[in-house]
Recover the amino acids of this structure.
């Protein structure tokens, strides 16, 4: 079998990169109304996590099915994310336009930490929505807990998300290609990370449930 056979390593890699590129482009297009960004990104992770698990699904049909199913909660994710971003942007704008030295350094450090944590939390929300069906309040709570447990790892993802935006600011000519390349690589890496982390959390929760069942007396 040649290396360029349709199911050989090279063609498989090209096919996977193409699928990831399509997913990234679809998520951007479906996020254009802004309010649908949460549903679009959750649909992207829904399909990419399946690819990462080796299920190799089709791209378009499962993406739009997940988009429709998560649209209601996805709108909630978009709205709360927009509110959080606007709140932090207003605070940083006030600091930027304030008199020099009027804002204590400790306050700026605290705001920077909270901003970074909020960015990682917003980044996590669509993946949690893609994996689980739960009430919106539980989605918020569980994604906050997940972010706290994986701060260092998620910081890398957030930096990789912001980097193409910075490059676009510096050199818009090739920014789109850099963005697509980085997003394809990070989507694959992040999907594997989310899959592994979710499976580990589910196993720990199941183990805890079994231990509680052993120690707590049953009624009746």
């Amino acid at each position: 079998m040649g290396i360029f056979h349709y199911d050989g390593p090279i063609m498989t890699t090209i096919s996977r990169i193409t699928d990831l590129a399509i997913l990234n482009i679809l998520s951007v297009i479906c996020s254009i109304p802004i309010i649908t960004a949460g549903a679009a990104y959750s649909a992207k992770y829904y399909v990419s996590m399946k690819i990462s698990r080796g299920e190799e699904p089709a791209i378009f049909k499962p993406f739009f099915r997940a988009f429709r199913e998560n649209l209601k909660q996805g709108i909630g994710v978009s709205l709360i994310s927009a509110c959080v971003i606007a709140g932090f942007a207003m605070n940083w704008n006030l600091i930027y336009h304030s008199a020099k030295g009027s804002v204590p350094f400790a306050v700026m450090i605290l705001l920077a930490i909270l901003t970074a944590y909020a960015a990682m939390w917003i980044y996590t929300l669509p993946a949690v929505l893609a994996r689980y069906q739960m009430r919106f309040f539980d989605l918020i709570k569980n994604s906050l807990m997940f972010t706290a447990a994986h701060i260092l790892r998620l910081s890398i993802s957030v930096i990789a998300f912001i980097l193409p935006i910075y490059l676009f600011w510096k050199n818009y000519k090739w920014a789109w290609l850099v963005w697509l390349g980085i997003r394809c690589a990070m989507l694959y890496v992040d999907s594997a990370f989310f899959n592994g982390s979710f499976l580990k959390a589910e196993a720990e929760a199941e183990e805890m449930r079994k231990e509680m069942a052993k120690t707590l007396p049953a009624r009746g």
In short: The helical segments are 9-29, 37-52, 60-69, 71-97, 105-131, 136-149, 151-170, 172-215. Residues 9-215 form one domain. The mean pLDDT is 87. The chain is about 80% helix and 0% strand.
